[in-house]
Amino acid sequence: MRSSAAILLVSIASACAYQVTSPGDTEGWTTVGPNELTWVRVDTDPLNFTAVLTNQAVMPQGPQVLNALVDGTLGQIICNPPSGGWPQGSGFRVNLAADAEHLDTLLAQSNQFNINSSTSSTSSTTKTATTSTSSGSVTTAVTPTTAGASTTSSDTSTTPTSSGAAILGMKVETGFLTAVAALAAFITTHL
Where does 69-163 have alpha helices with state H? Predict the structure, then answer.
């Protein structure tokens, strides 16, 4: 009976979690310019997360924080290249971590994907990203250069002017965990 309750709780927890939809095993990233990260979430998920690029074989220095304090309700963001540029290879994953201080506390993880050099030598596109913060929103347009040209990049980070959104996200997560614990207690005492 208790094992049935544990299986039920794991099923409930997995149904209520972020899911990375891109990049993944069928859609990777390129080494030129910014790349798009997309996900889905449910209302009980924390409102914010930190996007982290990982690959132990290609990045022995450890994970690279791409965007901190991401508004999870957006469903997508544009990730700018790290200061040293995008690494190239296979076996990369993007982790949605709880925050920049707890990179091992994962809310979701992408499937493995490749980061390849761009195959286009003449095209250039503009991607626009809107980042919302508690003090408003900022829209940024980024135009990557064509392949073969030198590119420069800089790390960007989002620093909120108020911790209200992060605290609200913690309250939602705490409320969900309390409900799961109460359900587990109910099931174990009544079965």
Answer: none
Q: Can you tell me the distance from the alpha carbon of 45 to that of 139, in angstroms, rounded to the nearest whole number?
A: 25
Q: Checking DSSP bridges between strand 127-133 and strand 64-71, what pairing results, if any?
A: unpaired
Q: Which two tokens stand for residue 17?
A: 């979690």
User: What is the C-alpha end-to-end distance of the chain, expressed in Å?
Assistant: 6
Could you report the per-residue pLDDT of 120-139, keeping only the tens digit for each?
A: 433 334 444 444 444 444 44
DSSP state of 45: S
Of the candidates 44, 45, 62, the one whose C-alpha atom is nearest the C-alpha of residue 53 is 62
Residue 71 and residue 73: Cα distance in Å, rounded? 6
Please give the Cα distance from 48 to 86 (Å, whole number): 24
Amino acid letter, residue 95? N
pLDDT recorded at residue 188: 64
Alpha helices in the chain (DSSP H): 2-15, 164-190
CB 50 within 8 A of CB 96: yes
One-letter amino acid of 49: F
In the predicted model, is pLDDT for residue 148 greater than 90? no
Q: How far is CA 47 from the centre of its chain?
A: 12
Instruction: Report CA dihedral (164, 170, 175, 179) to the nearest 10 degrees.
Output: 160
Could you tell me the two tokens for 166? 């992060």
pTM, 2 dp? 0.58
Which tokens sit at 140? 């940024």
